[in-house]
């Protein structure tokens, strides 16, 4: 009998999830570099680990590494093109890169299946504002606020709306 222990795939799966959960804990506590370390360990063993990829993308986005974040989201979207969180986060990363038309494409994919998604409507309104499409931005923002009034306060403080902040229609939505 050998002195080596054979680990079953269940043991490896448990270890991967353990590492993933440590990474997630670091991400939630605002330690993105530590989170990346653990997500990398998971992805070395299981490159298609959806949750590790999604959270790696989120961490990279928080660090301003939007192109790398988009790469993570694209890996997930290649197998699951309707993944709402990845589409939204990819849209946000594209938004921050100034690639507004591509961001809107991501938002529109979500809205085609969930037209009442207030968060997506809000982010699309932000992007439309930066494109100086005032009427569309205000229409989207109004719909988002009707669905979830928290967006009125958020919009009032959001720099994305600086271009339209003096518009009386914007002011009436955000008071």
Outline the structure in words.
The protein is mainly α and 175 residues long. The protein has 2 domains: 106 residues, Serine Threonine Protein Phosphatase 5, Tetratricopeptide repeat (Alpha Horseshoe), CATH 1.25.40; 61 residues, no CATH class. Helices cover 74% and strands 0% of the residues. The chain is built from 10 helices and no strands. Helix 3 packs antiparallel against helix 4, helix 3 runs parallel beside helix 5 and helix 5 packs antiparallel against helix 6. The N terminus is likely disordered.
CATH superfamily of the largest domain: Tetratricopeptide repeat domain
Query: Which secondary-structure class do the elements indicate?
Result: mainly alpha
Number of DSSP strands?
0
Under the CATH scheme, the architecture of the largest domain is: Alpha Horseshoe
Count of helical stretches: 10
End-to-end distance, in Å?
76 Å
Order of helices and strands: HHHHHHHHHH
Shape: elongated
| Largest sheet geometry | none
Helix content: over 70%
CATH class descriptor name of the largest domain: Mainly Alpha
Average pLDDT, rounded to a whole number, is 93
Summary, kept brief:
74% of the residues lie in helices and 0% in strands.
Q: Which helices and strands, and how do they pair?
A:
Layout: H1 9-28, H2 32-45, H3 50-62, H4 66-79, H5 84-96, H6 100-113, H7 118-130, H8 134-147, H9 150-157, H10 168-173
Helix pairs in contact: 1-2, 1-3, 2-3, 3-4, 3-5, 4-5, 5-6, 6-7, 7-8
């Amino acid at each position: 009998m050998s002195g080596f222990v054979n680990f079953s795939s269940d043991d490896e799966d448990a270890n991967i999830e353990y590492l993933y959960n440590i990474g997630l804990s670091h991400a939630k506590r605002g330690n993105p570099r530590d989170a990346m370390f653990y997500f990398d360990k998971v992805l070395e063993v299981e490159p298609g680990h959806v949750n590790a990829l999604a959270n790696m993308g989120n961490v990279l986005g928080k660090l301003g590494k939007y192109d790398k974040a988009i790469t993570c989201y694209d890996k997930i979207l290649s197998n699951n093109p309707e993944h709402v969180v990845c589409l939204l986060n990819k849209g946000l990363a594209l938004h921050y890169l100034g690639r507004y038309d591509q961001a809107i494409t991501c938002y529109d994919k979500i809205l085609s299946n969930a037209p009442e998604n207030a968060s997506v409507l809000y982010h699309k309104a932000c992007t439309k504002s930066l494109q100086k499409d005032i009427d569309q931005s205000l229409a989207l923002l109004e719909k988002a606020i009707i669905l979830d009034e928290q967006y009125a306060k958020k919009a009032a403080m959001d720099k994305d709306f600086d271009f339209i902040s003096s518009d009386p229609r914007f002011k009436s939505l955000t008071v």
